[in-house]
Structures are given as structure tokens and as C-alpha cells.
């Protein structure tokens, strides 16, 4: 019986690997045909675009409560797709019609996994091309290799997200690692562009842009903590929180990292005051980040090198504020919530591009 289970597991892995390869064939073929003169650069940009899409769909998966649509990993009830797990899904849905496992949620979760496998295949191809063409490309293959290591770690956190039943700290780290992967790809894509002209004003802004990335990363972590704890509607008005400037809050339980979803570390139900503390902290720090990035965008407009990304940054800040406010006032509508996640990712990409173009070594190959 144990041998049979092992064979089934091997078969499942093989089916999933073939699925990921098949899904990746289309973008790989596009990069191969479109980038005849520079396939490496084309593949970097395509992987960046699809990783951004994966993060959006990951947000959609989380916001539709589909993270446990298939409660095992890497497949769905020991199979490679929900069609083969139909009987198990039907039984779970009959037992709990609005529970974590439904036909729709199973497909959402598995599509998310298929997209993640596709990105993994693209990064493997990118690493292979970087090593095979390293003399022709005249750049180090190690950044692409680091991406491969990062995507492996990200895959491990994806597995733990399921096996640890959406534990908030694991889900938040999964989000942060996904955005780290996106930022790294943005850096690699920016460095693959033609060298920018030297701009002393842009160079002086480089440390301030780096600080902006740090502040944004903290805010994204706080936002991820809000989302994974389902604390978006803990404050239902704005600019006050439940009619108060400083409401009653429970920071100790709200920011205890190692605990189950919806519970304290001791296993008791998480109080509403703890959810308010999570939401309020994200909201207050948003003021700091918006003020800083707005100042940075206005400063960067004076640089010829950074004028265009600075305008994009300012536009994204306005859209991100509007979507965040709409989530509160409109009771967390799904399209706006997904757009808010996408806005954070777009801000990160924009800042990474600005940092790359502002550095004193923009003419150097990686």
C-alpha cells in the first residue's frame, strides 16, 4: 500500500510538471520568436509581466477564500487537477456548501498553482539561457540563478500556506517573497535596457529612492497582515476608525506572529480589538508612505532621467489611495481589493526602475 501511494505521488508530480511545462510553452515560444536578436532580454520582460499577473491572481485567490480550495499540495486530493478530484470536491462541498472547498474555489486555487509553475519554468529557462549565453550576453548569470533559488523558496512557502491552513505569518511571507521576486525581475529587466545617460540629479536621489522601497515594503507587509487576518472591515469609516481617532485596540494579540488564523497564540478567538489594531496600524503608516513617496515623486520630476517614472509614481500613489479608501467605504468589493494589491506591486516595480536608473553605475552590465 505504501508503494502504491509512492507511485501515485510520483505520477502526480509528473503530471503537474508536464502541466507547468505546457502552460509555459506559449510564453516561451513567444519570447523565442519575438526576441530573435535578444531572447534573454525578451524572456526577462515576459517573466516580469507574468509574475505581476501571478501576484494579481494570488491576491484574487486569497480574497475569494480559495487558498484551501484544494486542501493538499501540490495537487488536488492527490490528483493533478480538480476534474480528477471531482468526487472528493463534491463530498466536501455537500458537507459545507460555503466552506473552503468548492468546485469554483478548487479551480481558482489550482489555476494559481499552474501559473506559479509556469513562472517557475520561465525562470529555469532564464537561468539556463543566462549560463549558456553568458559570453555572448557579457553579463553574470548569477542574478538569474538567484531568481531560481528565490522561486524555489517561494514554492516552499506556497506549500506551507496550504499545509499550515492559511497561517497569517506564512501567507504574509508568501506575499512578500512573491513581491521580492517581482522586484528582482524588475531590476534585471531595467538593467537589460540600453544604458541611461548620466544624470547627477538622479544620482543624488538614489538613497532616497532606496528608502522609499524600504518604507513601501513595510507598508506592504502591514497590508498583507491586514488581508491575511481579514481585518479590512475592522474600521468601517474614514478618516476616523469606528467613530474614534484612536479606537480601543489590542496590539499584543493582533501582532502576535505565530498563531492560527482567527485565533490568539493560546487558541482563543481573536478579538475585534486585535483586528482594529492591525487595520489602524496599516492606515496610519499609509499616511507616512504616501507623504514620503509624493515628496519623492515631485523631487524626481526635476531629473530628466526620472521624469516619466516619477509621473507614473505620483499617479499610482493617487490610485492606491483611492482604492484603499474605496475598500473601506464600499465594504471591500473584490475588483477594488485586487486592484489595491496590484497597485502595491506596480509601485514596487516603479521604484525599482527609478533606483536602477538613478544609480551611478547605470551604464554597467550586471
Automatic annotation (TrEMBL):
GO terms for molecular function: metal ion binding; oxidoreductase activity. It is a multi-pass membrane protein. InterPro entries: COX15/CtaA_fam, COX15/CtaA_HemeA_synthase. GO terms for biological process: heme A biosynthetic process. Keywords: Cell membrane, Disulfide bond, Heme biosynthesis, Iron, Membrane, Metal-binding, Oxidoreductase, Transmembrane, Transmembrane helix. Pathway: Porphyrin-containing compound metabolism. GO terms for cellular component: membrane. It is found in: Membrane. Its main location: membrane. The chain crosses the membrane at residues 12-31, 43-63, 111-132, 144-163, 169-188, 208-226, 280-298, 310-330, 336-355. It comes from the Bacteria. The keyword Metal-binding applies. PANTHER family: HEME A SYNTHASE. This is Heme A synthase, cytochrome oxidase biogenesis protein Cox15-CtaA. It comes from Sulfuriferula multivorans. The lineage of its organism: Bacteria, Pseudomonadati, Pseudomonadota, Betaproteobacteria, Nitrosomonadales.
